[in-house]
Design goal:
The chain has 159 residues and is of the alpha/beta class. It has a single domain, classed as TIM Barrel. It is built from 5 helices and 6 strands, in the order H-E-H-E-H-E-E-E-H-E-H. The strands form 2 sheets. A 3-stranded parallel β-sheet has the order 1-2-3, covered by helices on one side. Strands 4-5-6 form a 3-stranded parallel β-sheet. Helix 4 links the parallel strand 5 and strand 6. Helix 2 packs parallel to helix 3 and helix 4 crosses helix 5. The longest helix has 16 residues. The radius of gyration is 16 Å and the shape is globular.
């Protein structure tokens, strides 16, 4: 992603090639490196280049980004702030679904989630679903299949 730099030279080509996926294209995930500190000007320039008709999500990996100014910039462009559990700097839980009309979660706990943890996530996500938001919850791949089972349990809990 080039650390949010030069979006006008890279993003148009990427989105031109992604657009043929049409309705099969889910949210496009962008991720900053863990050492990239908050830079509102850089973020604003990056967000300005995102197409308004496609869903985009941004995973920032340094705690300096978790401030209201960042949330407002994302909200203005309807870009989801990714909640990435298991990372060094996961976003605060209250930001899940707060910056876009959808939520994007990366649930990366090993070796999977207990029934109580799945129930807690279901409880957090129900209000978002009730207001009509889509929820994209991705579980970490693991060799045991525990997270695949966690994903199924979350789906069933929300059905």
């Amino acid at each position: 992603m080039r650390q949010l730099r030069d979006p006008a030279t890279t993003l148009p080509v990427f989105f031109e090639r992604a657009r043929p996926l049409a309705e099969r294209l889910g949210p496009v995930l962008f991720q900053t490196p863990p050492w990239l500190k908050r830079d509102d000007d850089r973020l604003a320039m990056f967000l300005a280049e995102l197409p308004g008709d496609l869903r985009c999500a941004l995973e920032v990996r340094d705690v300096s980004w978790y401030v209201n100014d960042t949330y407002e910039l994302l909200r203005t462009r309807r870009v989801a702030l990714v909640h990435a559990e298991g990372e060094r700097a996961p976003s605060p839980l209250e930001t899940v679904g707060a910056t876009a009309p959808f939520a994007y979660l990366r649930l990366r706990k090993e070796p999977g989630y207990s029934d109580a943890e799945v129930a807690a996530w279901a409880e957090r996500l129900r209000p978002l679903l009730a207001r009509g938001a889509d929820v994209y919850a991705y579980f970490r791949h693991d060799e045991t299949g525990a997270n695949a089972l966690s994903a199924e349990r979350l789906r069933d809990a929300l059905a």
